[in-house]
Design a protein that fits this description.
The structure holds two protein chains of two kinds. By secondary structure, chain A is an all-beta fold. Helices cover 0% and strands 58% of the residues of chain A. In chain A, the strands form two sheets. In chain A, strands 2, 4, 5, 6, 9, 10 and 11 form a seven-stranded mixed sheet that branches. Chain A has a four-stranded antiparallel sheet with strand order 1-3-8-7, with no helix packed on it. Chain A is globular and about 40 Å long. Classes of the chains: A mainly beta, B mainly beta.
């Protein structure tokens, strides 16, 4: 897992509440990613970061924002959670000369 | 744990046989490809990668074949073991970016 942790691992929240998921890496990787994984869709990119304070949108970014104030932390915020955001969220990091992405263990989010 | 989906295509193989998992990718300009393994409740784990200027790459018990003519990628696992049971999916990298597109995956079941 290349030192990638996610918190919380499980969360249940109500529609309309804000939620923040945290990804932490210890390998000083430059690139970090947030994906969601849903049945029948595979992993879909929400946002990614190519450096501190440098972020860009992925294919399913609506309703999500991110922040990266330090190399090791990448936060994903659901501004006002909806039931369609119930999913498993994975963080990944990549750096160095390799294109290999290392994934965290995932966060299962349920919006009721 | 985090599950990857209930209706994935499934490949069942006898323990000790070879497995071949296929993937069709979308962008003929993609320049890098990865195969991942995902066990139940865990994040995806890197297996093997290949660059677009190669046709074949071998690792320990695994081989990836790339056919750019038909945009096809395959993963061959030799002497399949019970521990190989998991969901496998491919990812392609967009050229000039660090964004990846993931396939939906294939579930591999190893029969004793």
């Amino acid at each position: 897992d290349a030192g990638i942790t996610q918190s919380p691992r499980h969360k249940v929240t109500e529609t309309g509440t804000p939620v923040t998921l945290r990804c932490h890496q210890t390998e000083n990787h430059r690139y970090m990613y947030w994906y969601r994984q849903d049945p029948g869709h595979g992993l879909r990119l929400i946002h990614y970061s190519y450096g501190v304070k440098d972020t860009d949108k992925g294919e399913v970014s609506d309703g999500y924002s991110v922040s990266r104030s330090k190399t090791e932390d990448f936060l994903l915020t659901l501004e006002s959670a909806t039931s369609s955001q119930t999913s498993v969220y994975f963080c990944a990091a990549q750096g160095g000369a390799s294109y290999e992405q290392y994934f965290g263990p995932g966060t299962r989010l349920t919006v009721t | 744990g985090e599950s990857v989906g209930l209706h994935l295509p499934t490949l069942s193989v006898q323990e000790g046989d070879n497995s071949i998992i296929n993937c069709a990718y979308s962008n003929s300009a993609s320049d890098y490809f990865i195969w991942y393994k995902q066990e139940s409740g865990k994040g995806p784990q890197f297996i093997i990668d290949i660059r677009s200027n190669m046709d074949k790459r071998q690792g320990q018990r695994v081989t990836v074949l790339l056919n750019k003519t038909v945009k096809h990628l395959s993963l061959q696992i030799a002497a399949t073991q019970p521990g190989d049971s998991a969901v496998y999916f491919c990812a392609e990298k967009n050229p000039g970016t660090y964004k990846y597109i993931f396939g939906t995956g294939t579930r591999l079941k190893v029969l004793a």
